[in-house]
Amino acid sequence: MKTVSELAGWGPLQGDVAFFKTELEQSSAIPIPIPGIEGESGVSLTSGFRAGLLYPLALSPNANPEMSRINDRFQLGGPTDVRGFRLSGLGPRDGPDAVGGDVYAAAGASLLLPLPRVGKEKPLRFQAFVNGGRLLALQNPQREGAMTGDEVRQGMKDTIAELGNGLPSMSAGVGLVYAHPVARFELNFSLPLVLRKGEEGRKGLQFGIGINFL
């Protein structure tokens, strides 16, 4: 489990933006024994969960909180988190452009199996996965500009509640995973299962390189 928090522009920190930004990440891996195979089978079930929140703050005691800027917001979608969607394919958009969100939650599960004739000692696995998530902007009738402190609190409550309204954007697929000591490589075939209006799915092959995967 890992959590990262950022505080900007509050009190003596100064600056031209003020917010509290925090993320929580949890992952687990469970080995699965196979009858007839002595010792470790090399089969495992992994799961992961990520969530984040960006809370606007006021730059001074008498000022109202300013809405978040695009470069500070969260992005979601792509080969290292919600597979089966284009990079930053989830969440609010301005025409064809992803503008990010202030609240998100995403989860995934993968079944990893050794490849025949390769052996469980090798870092190459076949995987079958399902993952999904939602990325939302802070609910505000006027996206740009300032809100009062009470409006921010109520807007954040409404946005968090909206995360559980309906199914998240979801996908499933199969692929190959190579766990190199430096980075993890994945080549997957993904199929979007739930696609919300405006979001960009990606059916077919998707290649990802990274350290942290959902």
Tags for this entry?
mainly beta, 214 residues, 8-stranded antiparallel beta sheet, 43% strand, 10 strands, elongated, single chain, two-stranded antiparallel ribbon, 1 helix
What is the structure about, briefly put?
With 214 residues, the chain is mainly beta. Helices cover 7% and strands 43% of the residues.
Structure description:
The protein is mainly beta and 214 residues long. 7% of the residues lie in helices and 43% in strands. The protein contains 1 helix and 10 strands. The protein has one helix spanning 149-162, and strands at residues 2-8, 19-31, 44-56, 93-94, 97-98, 103-114, 124-136, 169-179, 184-194, 204-210. The strands form 2 sheets. The protein has an 8-stranded antiparallel β-sheet with strand order 1-2-3-6-7-8-9-10, with helices on one face. A two-stranded antiparallel sheet has the order 4-5. The longest helix is centred in the C-terminal third of the chain and has 14 residues, at 149-162. It is elongated and about 70 Å long. The mean pLDDT is 92.
Map the helices and strands.
Blueprint: E1 2-8, E2 19-31, E3 44-56, E4 93-94, E5 97-98, E6 103-114, E7 124-136, H1 149-162, E8 169-179, E9 184-194, E10 204-210
Antiparallel strand pairs: 1-2, 2-3, 3-6, 4-5, 6-7, 7-8, 8-9, 9-10
